[in-house]
Write a structure and sequence with these properties.
D-amino Acid Aminotransferase, Chain A, domain 1, binds pyridoxal-5'-phosphate, alpha+beta
Length: 299
């Protein structure tokens, strides 16, 4: 597989208030964010030159930093404007935006009260590779031995880099066995989420999704729930135990990156992308593209 490394590309990166040439957006190896995971980030999708739910993502970035005990030195409005400027500078049409904030190099140790807070925002092309029909086939998931920690064990209500350590371990483990992604349980043994997305199930024409009480209540998750309610679907947000898996007929994951993606396997359990999954996949696809087109028309 030929890779286009993320440190060797054309374009600009917004870095502490300025656009800098892509290859020059560097930080020191003695950054607290790297050693002690004092780092938070966002993942946003750009459709037709416009970020879907930009301000909710920026607000979550601010919130994640606050949960880790630091304040990003740019307001939500300033960060939104930086994202819009970056899209213009990089002439992005369909892509992805990655804001990341971290503690710098002033102090090296667990305590880092005086460290400077940095913010960088990168963007890259991310065209729609799969038509909704191609995605319908569904992904294969493997149950991870790693569990989402409880809210008294880790800052679970934040998109903090440190929380992804067990996601990468889970995903690598799943990929090594030929699966696409991993399904993680939580510290109580309940079904929680995928490594970068939330999960929904269908049983007897009704939706079931885990309570997001120890993992991200994703922006896509909430958007999909709104779309489901518009169709009159009943949604049960509740504790879901693994022994319920055989009773579900459909399963799908939702997130900024995966959008709505059907699941066809979780270990020995099989699912089909039925009417509800297909409708929500198409509704979400239409909504994000409509939002992009409307924002473009309003300019
Ligand atoms: C672990 C995890 N859960 C859920 C989500 C879904 O969140 P969102 O829909 O806001 O992208 C993401 C993606 O950001 C994630 O990384």
């Amino acid at each position: 597989m030929s890779l286009l490394p993320y440190d060797d590309r054309d374009g600009v990166i917004w870095f502490d208030g300025e656009f800098v040439p892509w290859r020059e957006a560097k930080l020191h190896v003695l950054s607290h964010g790297l050693h002690y995971a004092s780092c938070v980030f966002e993942g946003e999708r750009v459709y037709n030159g416009h970020t879907f739910k930009l301000t909710p993502h920026t607000e979550r970035l601010h919130h994640s930093a606050k949960v880790l005990g630091f304040e990003i030195p740019y307001s939500v409005a300033e960060i939104d404007e930086a994202c819009r400027g970056l899209i213009r500078e990089n002439k992005l049409v369909d892509g992805y935006i990655r804001p990341v904030a971290w503690r710098g190099s002033e102090m090296m140790g667990v305590s880092a009260q005086q460290s400077k807070i940095h913010l960088a925002i990168a963007s890259w092309e991310w065209p729609a590779y799969f038509s909704p029909e191609a995605r319908m086939e569904g992904i294969r998931m493997k149950i991870s031995p790693w569990r989402r920690p409880g809210p008294d064990t880790a800052p679970t209500d934040s998109k903090a880099a440190g929380l992804y350590m067990i996601c990468t371990l889970s995903k690598h483990m799943a990929e090594a066995e030929g699966y696409n992604d991993a399904l993680m349980f939580d510290y109580r043994g309940r079904i929680a989420e995928a490594t970068g997305a939330n999960i929904f199930f269908v049983r007897d024409g009704e939706l079931h999704t885990p309570d997001p009480d120890c993992f991200l209540n994703g922006i896509t998750r909430r958007t999909v729930m709104d779309l489901a309610r518009k169709r009159g679907y009943v949604i049960h947000e509740r504790a879901i135990m693994p022994d319920e898996l055989p009773s579900f007929s459909e399963a799908f994951i939702v997130g900024t990156a995966v959008e709505v993606t059907p699941v066809r396997e979780i270990d020995e359990h099989r699912f089909k992308a039925g009417e509800m999954t297909v409708n929500l996949l198409k509704d979400y696809d239409a909504l994000v593209r409509e939002a992009g087109a409307q924002s473009a028309a309003a300019e």
